[in-house]
């Protein structure tokens, strides 16, 4: 697991630098509305990708009895699924444009139908690479594609291609992943394929698909609702705030969670052992996420203005609200891997269904009655708090057969840490608020110092020993 986290961390933390640079440049070259238009199309693509995957990817990682022929048959199925979904999305472009009253969506959706096809045919190869724990390959592949697509996007924006420059990254990345995958782990396509392999994984993949289906709504309905009931500029501001807030989660929890399922699946028959390991993971996530969330709250103005410019100031209030949800998002995002490792995808679906009902209801009510993106952000925070409590009651009682009390205790010191950071910054920021860059540096240093003292004095971790072991591990990897 350490090996997987190491290479996934390299992928994510180098990627975050590339994403920030590319986003900062594009945010200064393109109008806010362009980001809103493309956000709608991308959200729809993500929805259709659920049907291309059908829970197959996770099922392949979990199942140890699939033959080469079985895998090729499943791959052939995803190819046909990709063709059907791409064609449907291509011809649905007119309807999407009419619904949002934006003719530009016609061309955008039709171009992105290519992206949808390649996302579908990458399902099986990606699952096999993950199952084989080829984390180093995934890290290199992702970084290379991010760098190339980012440079091309910026060049296109400078050349005056407008919102079309925002389509470069999703299309280029999907095609690039396919090329890398084919060279690494080629799959055979059969015109006539057998459905028997799909039946082998049905009980697992079906509930994984249902969970992905309803989880999509809880994760993306805010953007679709804002695009419908508010303005596309509002959606642009909200989307930029949400993406920026999600970067820590995508680059912290996504370093750990992709590794959890293929590694912890070996403990699927040892629920007590699985719970013990998971409590350690939650402790780590809480130690990172609580201080990080409160730090980003106080850095909202500095981050938005430095990265995107003053024209994005309307994103600041939304970003501040959303950062308060970061600790619960980061912790809650790890539950899916545990459900899958425990072989309880049915309960993962039931849990996801209850979460989606609370979340979507909040989005609809806040957008319809308040008609402000800040209200939508607050509804996300409130529903997430409810969902976190419900999710862990279900997870520990049903899947892990363990007490939730131990898990709750792991979050006590991280919460105290966040409170101390907030108090220290609030009490001192008038001394350095006159300069935006100085303010950013000082607030970060305060958060690091308070966190170090809190973690060390509470005995949660021996930071010096962890750094020493980390450096030794990096040195060992270089030697290999």
Nutshell version of this structure?
It is built from 23 helices and no strands. With 480 residues, the chain is mostly helical.
Verbal overview:
- It is a single chain.
- The chain has 480 residues and is mainly α.
- The protein folds into two domains: 1-200, no CATH class; 213-480, no CATH class.
- The chain is 82% helix and 0% strand.
- It contains 23 helices and no strands.
- It has helices at residues 2-29, 32-53, 56-62, 68-91, 93-100, 104-121, 123-131, 135-158, 168-184, 196-200, 202-229, 232-264, 271-298, 300-307, 315-323, 326-332, 335-341, 345-369, 373-399, 405-409, 412-428, 436-458, 463-479.
- Helix 3 (56-62) packs antiparallel against helix 11.
- It is globular.
- It starts with a helix and ends with a helix.
- The mean pLDDT is 82.
Descriptive key words:
480 residues; mainly alpha; 23 helices; 0% strand; globular
Principal-axes shape call: globular
Compute the CA-based radius of gyration: 22 Å
Q: Helix and strand succession?
A: HHHHHHHHHHHHHHHHHHHHHHH
Average pLDDT confidence is 82
How many DSSP H or I helices? 23
Please report the distance between the alpha carbons of the first and last residues.
17 Å
Quickly count the domains.
Answer: 2
Number of strands: 0
What's the topology here?
Elements: H1 2-29, H2 32-53, H3 56-62, H4 68-91, H5 93-100, H6 104-121, H7 123-131, H8 135-158, H9 168-184, H10 196-200, H11 202-229, H12 232-264, H13 271-298, H14 300-307, H15 315-323, H16 326-332, H17 335-341, H18 345-369, H19 373-399, H20 405-409, H21 412-428, H22 436-458, H23 463-479
Helix pairs in contact: 1-8, 1-12, 2-4, 2-6, 2-11, 2-12, 3-7, 3-11, 4-6, 5-6, 6-9, 8-9, 11-12, 11-18, 12-13, 12-15, 12-16, 12-17, 13-15, 13-16, 13-21, 13-22, 14-22, 15-19, 18-19, 21-22
